Amino acid sequence: VAALAAHAVAQGAEILKARAKGFKIANGKLVSVITDTGEIAVEAAVIAAGARSNTLAASIGARLPLENERG
Q1: Which residue has the higher pLDDT, 36 or 14?
Q2: pLDDT digits (tens, 9 = 90+) for 17-65
Q3: 30 with 42: CB under 8 angstroms?
Q4: What contacts 58, CB < 8 A, 6 or more positions away?
Q5: pLDDT at 69 over 80
Q6: Which partner from 1, 24, 43, 50 sits 20 to 30 angstroms from 71, CA to CA?
């Protein structure tokens, strides 16, 4: 994971540590991610929240074919 993060940063990505709470959509376009530390303006976002991915996707009307398993 560290190598992947380092590569992303080398390509211009910025890594922020925050918990996504939802999204702000304007005129049918994603404009920001709402987090526990405030709103972050974005042009695109990746939902990689594990078990919470379906809940976040559903908040913008998207459905992810994802099943959760533990153990």
Answers
A1: 36
A2: 899 999 999 999 999 999 999 999 999 888 888 888 888 999 888 888 8
A3: yes
A4: none
A5: no
A6: 1
Cross-strand pairs, 26: 29
Give the alpha-carbon dihedral of 52, 71, 16, 31, to 10 degrees.
-20
Return the amino acid letter for 66.
L
Cα 3 to Cα 6, 7, 9, 10, 48, distances in angstroms: 5, 6, 10, 10, 17
Measured between alpha carbons, how far is 18 from 42 in angstroms, rounded to an integer? 14
Neighbours of 34 (CB within 10 A): 15
